[in-house]
Amino acid sequence: MSGGLCISDGWDSGRWDIVTVLQGDVDFIHVWEGILNPPLWIWVDPVAGTLEAGEQQTLNITVDIGGFEMFDDVIVGDESAAEIVLVGPHWSNPPILSLSVTYINDVSNNVEEMPMQYALHQNYPNPFNPATSIKFDLVDAQQVKLSVYNLLGQEVAQLVDQPMQAGYHTVKFDAAQLASGVYFYRLDTQAYTSMKKMVLVK
Hints:
- This protein has strands at residues 5-7, 17-23, 27-32, 42-45, 49-51, 56-64, 79-84, 96-104, 119-120, 131-138, 142-149, 155-164, 167-174, 181-189, 193-200.
- By secondary structure, the protein is mainly beta.
- It folds into 2 domains: 5-105, no CATH class; 111-200, Immunoglobulin-like, CATH 2.60.40.1930.
- The relative contact order is 0.15.
- The strands form 5 sheets. The protein has a 4-stranded mixed sheet with strand order 4-6-8-7, with no helix packed on it. A 4-stranded antiparallel sheet has the order 12-11-14-15, with no helix packed on it. Strands 9-10-13 form a 3-stranded antiparallel sheet, with no helix packed on it.
């Protein structure tokens, strides 16, 4: 891949890669953070991809500064920008890799507030018209999918499909476009699956 770039989130099974750059036989960049499981305080988007020679891509990095003394002088909402410059005998037309860093303070990272078990709670209000709230608890950070199904088992709404932090979560569901009836909402994670019934009355 002359002049190109690979971004990977799993090059080394013992570490969680932020960026891996492989070029020719001599140019190599490997930036990593954490150990076997991805750390709970940093997210990278996109987590994988390929750049051709001369192409440009921005890595969006979100850092949760809650509980870290090293970030005491960082203001929540601050954004930083940087650029990885690739030099060497193989980089005659190098890709441009920009970095955008945003700092947040997710209170759900407070250990004292962590749930002890997974749970999907009954929506409230129920019956509802047309909006309701769905709460669920995550013991660990992981990929989460929360969907709504009708009596035929057809998915009528996808409320969540993304990585989420450990903690207590609430999702609003607006069923204004759906007909009255019985619906089911299902939570799927790597460690826990649960489904509950709710009633829409218009």
